[in-house]
Amino acid sequence: MSLAQIAPSRLDALRERLPQAKASAWDTATHLHPDLLELGVGIVDVDGRPAIQLVTRHPHARGFEVALGADQWRLPPACQAWPIPIGPAGDHTATVATITEFGSHRAYPLRFVLRSGGYDDGR
User: Fold this and answer.
1) How many distinct structural domains can be found in the chain?
2) Does the pLDDT value for residue 103 go beyond 80?
3) Average pLDDT in the 76-88 region?
4) 113: helix, coil or strand?
């Protein structure tokens, strides 16, 4: 199964779990859109490999930027799963930033653990 086949259903399922922004009569300006930094994070299988699925409800989000060490990935909004890279076993911290038409916003840590050196993709 390809990422294109998995992503739409997974995105919809994760989006449904994100809290909805609710405007009140006294606080309308602060709740016009969901928080740009509020993300949904899930683990999915992409072609037999583990990946981290990122979703947001914000209408101005154009994707995500993920960094791990010196490596960086830009994920388009239609397929926001980030295949977990091969690496040494142990705790790792990537950073995730939301991308808008104005650029990347502040990055936040995403911690994960690789067991037994991750997976072998045959490369």
Assistant:
1) 1
2) yes
3) 81
4) strand
Both tokens of 108, joined, read: 């936040």
pLDDT given at position 40: 84
Residue 33: inside a domain: no
Range of the domain at 67: 3-17+38-114
Predicted structure pTM score: 0.65
Tell me which residue has tokens 């993920």.
66
CATH number of the domain that residue 95 is part of: 2.60.40.10
Q: Quickly count: other Cβ atoms within 10 Å of residue 3's Cβ.
A: 17
66 closest CA partner among 88, 44, 84: 84
Render the burial of 44-77: b for 16+ CB within 10 Å, e for the rest: bebeebbbbbbbbbbeebbbbbbbbeeeeeebee
By CB atoms closer than 10 A (0-12, 13-18, 19+), residue 87 is: middle
Does 119 reside within a domain?
no
Whole-angstrom distance, CA of residue 41 vs CA of residue 54: 5
Rounded Cα gap, residues 20 and 58, in angstroms: 10
